[in-house]
Specification:
The complex is a heterodimer of chains A (about 425) and B (about 550).
Chain A (H helix, E strand, L loop, with lengths): L2 H7 L9 E2 L2 E2 H4 L3 H9 L5 E8 L8 E3 L3 H7 L11 E3 L2 E6 L4 H8 L3 E8 L7 H10 L11 H9 L17 E4 L15 E4 L2 H9 L9 H16 L3 H10 L14 H14 L6 E7 L17 H22 L6 E6 L20 E6 L6 E3 L19 E2 H12 L4 H8 L10
Parallel strand pairs in A: 3-10, 3-11, 7-13, 7-14, 8-9, 8-10
Antiparallel strand pairs in A: 1-2, 4-6, 5-6, 7-12, 11-12
Helix pairs in contact in A: 5-12, 7-14, 10-11, 11-12, 13-14
Chain B lengths: L18 H11 L5 H8 L3 H10 L36 H20 L6 H11 L4 H4 L2 H14 L4 H10 L1 H6 L13 H10 L11 H10 L3 E4 L7 E4 L9 E2 L8 E2 L10 H10 L2 H15 L6 H17 L4 H9 L17 H11 L10 H17 L31 H14 L2 E3 L3 E3 L3 H6 L7 H12 L6 H12 L9 H13 L4 H20 L7
Antiparallel strand pairs in B: 1-2, 3-4, 5-6
The chains are: A alpha/beta (about 425), B mainly alpha (about 550).
Amino acid sequence: MKRRDFLKNTALSVALPTFLNGISLKALAGTPLMSALSNYMHDDKVLVLIQLAGGNDGLNTVIPFDQYNLYHTARTNIALPENKVLRLNGYDATALHPALADMQKLFNDGKLGIVQAVSYPKPNFSHFRATDIWMTASDSDKVVNTGWAGRFLNQQFPNFPNNYPNTQMPDPLAIQVGSVISTTFQGPAFTMGLAISNPSSFYNLIEGKVNVDSNTRWGEQLDYLEEMSLKTDQYANVIKKAALKVTKQSSTYPAQGKNPLADQLKIVARLIAGGLKTKVYMVNTGSFDTHAKQTDDTDKTIGTHANLLKRVSEAVNIFMDDLNYLQVGDRVMGMTFSEFGRRIKSNASGGTDHGAAAPVFYFGNKVKSGIIGNNPTMPTNATVNDNVPMQNDFRSIYASVLQNWFGLQPADVQSVLNGTYPVLNMV
Amino acid sequence: MATPTANGSIKKYRGKWNKVQTKHLLKRTMFGAKKEDVDFFASQSLHKTIEALLNTEEEIPQPPLNNYNDDKYSDPEIQIGQTWITANKQTGMEIGRRRNSFKSWWLALMINQNRTIKEKMVLFWHNHFSTETNVVDNATSSYKHNVLLRQYALGNFKEMVKAITYDPCMLRYLNGNNNVRKAPDENYGRELQELFTVGKGSGSHYTEADVKAAAKVLTGFRIDAKSLSNIKGIFDASRHDETDKQFSSFYNNTIIKGRKGKDGEHELDDLLNMIFAQEEVSKFICRKLYRFFVYHLIDENAEKNIIEPLAKTFRKNNYEIKPVLTQLLSSRHFFDDNNKGCIIKNPIDFSVGLCREYNVQFPNNDDYVDLYAFCLTLQQQTALMQQNIGDPPNVAGWPAYYQEPQYDKIWINSDTLPKRNVFTDRMINNGFARPANKKIIIDAVAFAQALSNPSNPEDLINESISLLYMMDLPDKEKQYMKEGILLSGLQGMMSDHYWTDAWNKLTTKPDDAANKKDVTNKLKKLYKYLMNLPQYQLC
């Protein structure tokens, strides 16, 4: 008997001399973990993670409008004009970057929320380390080798990948658009995720094309190898099948290549609507590492950072639009994250250096919109050492998603996150 | 599908001699091209490199040892750490353990090979004079067979065939041992022609009558197993058919006169002289060498301009192997760009080559228990990938070397490709472990450290690609590896220095465990990714 069936079928029994992760089933019977497992398969909720790689400048994304003068003084060379920032219904103190018009609309429609000043104690300023911390949900001074979503999926689908895919879970547990699977999906022994290397390889997969010029001897061999590797990917067929079920998507997507994040999310929407039971998707865009010239010299509302934000805002909006068109909008929740925010005071090169806390966006038909937390307090004489202090631990966001979106019991959330974090009113 | 042709004649290659040419030559003639070997030979010339690969004197390897005593079993005759080839007794228990010891020993020789073509040629001849340890069921004679392959690997092919006829391993495997006057067994007489010498090419027309006639010539050769350690093939005149043997028109209607008594043994020379008088023998062997070292398909151009002149060289030199290999491996054709990177690695090349190219550290010979255990692990991995050294599928060897139209594509299927990926993933991630924390694993940081400029992400990627692959990757792919792996999604202008800083910190702040882990993980991801791309399957 498979362990999963075993657990399912024995959820009500009381005294069995069997152990699950060292805890006897007697103790587990009827506990939240067991109910989580047995309820789980009928649940069709999906989470989409959007990584804003490089460290997004939170203060030029979500502006502390109520402290505009101090904000302007701290970063005069990049400060957004007071009359250009976008206002939010019911939240006069806070405004958005002018490039986020689509997100403003989603916020005002009640489909998007903001968590202020997200970070963790003793923030790390290295891209690599900080990214690892976000992905593993570890403390700043602890090195953890598994990803938070990997632990979540491992809890729900024990023994993966042995005997997977199977009839109960025929689909990949998690899908990453990108060639290398993120640490976020790393389980205790195996990665729980499957990578789709890039949008064109996805379309090659579903259209059955391979990539190589077979006009050389090695090219001809490579052709064969690529074809074989597509065929042998045990999930290639289910993905192809799901994708082929969706013949029409929202017409509002830009042409492929114009907005790489929209390209990635288009694939995600197609797979969700095609019926994959995959729980978590991850996409990414960047680079938000804006050390220099993050705005245009004269018009601060345009430039590098504006372009990056516009991409995110447009892509999220089109994605939501498409999900609703495909009638799966209610099943999906998304969130952005970035390894850190940037310094309050801008630097002399018209950019910002690595900082601490920054806002997180979350969205979906079913989320509770609004702003969680307050604007960061702007210092009167900002120095290079001033950072946005943490108000919300990023693991609170994970806890909220696990508990209120995926319906895990608090004890299970605690075991995934290796600790207890306040649940936020996100969903 | 039409296959692109390769140009270049058999004439000596006089183009540039650089790392690309060196790497191509080494990947084909050794197991993987290690950076230090490529550097070593690239600074010399093609001539000197071929000279070293073919003519370096090598010591005869120490024989395999008893590594197999354990809690449950002790070899009653041979002590642990002693060689078992001197043993005079064997039961099923010893045979099984010694067979594994033999395979480990062989794998270790490949892993620790010298800068010569020797080990590749031993594998070539193993595939050619295929025998199976499982069928022969005598580890001593499997070992002796292997020694014979080594002895003649670069010697005289005709003498090798003669020695194979006396080889107790082959006498068992193809039933020469049962081939007696009253009831000839045709097995060896057939394969001698069909698989070992004239082959089945369009120029080979031996007949069934020739098989029978050859079998009669070969009556009387049998195994003398009075002493296991001295097991050998002998000629037993009492078993020999002394009648005349008539051959077909393919052999010019040759009659091999029956010889009496002990003189009957010399009919073997008559038979080999007759067979080796056929030009087809030289062509058959040259085609086989071509498939092993150059490319699986022999088109008209290659048959006429490469195989024919090579075969002529073979005959002119009385079937000495070295002149043929020298000519082939020094030819313009061999170095034609279209002949680079076009072979799908066999599983041994894939896994032993991986260990060598990444300089995976194995225990030394003193720690033979661990060394043999790791080698057996590797051998079992290659067996899962469908190349079980010492046990080819049958007397024809591995289908990758003869099965049209697939040839080396046969190595790759929906079962074996994932196994190759699982193996490379494991070697880069966790490795294979033994008690006392001993491990074989790729040290990604050490590999990167040996490169010329690892602190620059682009140089790191480019140099890794050029060491591991025969072909370049598209810029998009390299850009992805830089941004998606080394820089974790950072793109654009100012980002390269993040990798540089992290890399340099390994030396300036060696105690920064988090940084070390980051860098190590990124390199592991990079090399895992590189080994998962199909380009890594080619050599």
